[in-house]
């Protein structure tokens, strides 16, 4: 199916976004799509769940819901989030209301997110444990439907003070996937995740720490198959990004963890951002029922990445 036909089908889907208390709820064609969660008790805002057009939930339920069989590791990995574990030494990634870590930061939504068409626009503040602001974040999340659902993220970070993003593997744009999309284990019939990247690598052993334009993870949910692809814009800093993709269900991209990903002790992926300067990141998530082969994924990526930057 051509990108033009896909765009026409997406334009026919009706995206509805509604503000509620400390959350923004997204439906497409009157079916659940996702919810942007923030406010009291949230250390970093997140989107959850991610749902395909056929209703398959691609994100882990826990700790938002306790569903039998769901793994209970890494409670800070909730839905979809954007953060980093070392910003002037402050950890914004490994943050959860249950944690008592002394160097844990918080990312707060300022005011009320704005809704326009199929987009949610939010202004966020990255603050250290003492409440000092390090970064302003401007985030636009745009939803589209059709046979493939997409979520586009346009994120701009502005330094309030001199900031250094340290070389650390835990970052920056991540999704915690459903149990079914974890890498298979011999004794477990539920885990069916199949990982592939634009470079041709497969599964964590080959793909972790690789640099690639995109990655897709698909699997089986009962009698149905579904999956999620993550695209990294060629306009992003240090593209192509490194992939912090783990078989236990983490799909993430991180340009700052070079030492960890390359296993080179002399490498340094840290990046300074002087006061007043900005960094911009763009990503796309493609939520698909059924599988997508590598040629289709490559075409979808090219069509998205070649579109004019707004």
Structural overview:
With 310 residues, this protein is mainly beta. The chain contains 4 helices and 17 strands. It has one domain: Beta-galactosidase, Chain A, domain 5 (Distorted Sandwich), CATH 2.70.98. Strand 2 and strand 3 form a beta hairpin. The radius of gyration is 18 Å and the shape is globular. The chain starts with a helix and ends in a 5-residue tail after the last helix.
> What is CATH's topology name?
Beta-galactosidase, Chain A, domain 5
Residue stretches low in confidence (pLDDT < 50, at least 5 long) are 1-10
Provide the domain count.
1
- Sheet/helix structural class: mainly beta
The count of DSSP E runs of length 2 or more, i.e. the number of strands, is: 17
Instruction: Identify the quaternary structure here.
Output: single chain
Task: Provide the CATH architecture.
Answer: Distorted Sandwich
Work out the helix count.
4
- CATH hierarchy, class: Mainly Beta
The ordered string of helix (H) and strand (E) elements is HEEEEEEEEEEEEHEEEHEEH
Q: For the report, how would you describe the main beta sheet?
A: 8 strands, antiparallel
Proportion of residues in β-strands: 35-45%
- Mean pLDDT over all positions: 94
Portion of residues within helices: 10-25%
- Our Rg estimate from Cα atoms comes to 18 Å
Shape: globular
End-to-end separation? 25 Å
Strand order of the largest sheet: 6-7-8-9-17-14-13-12
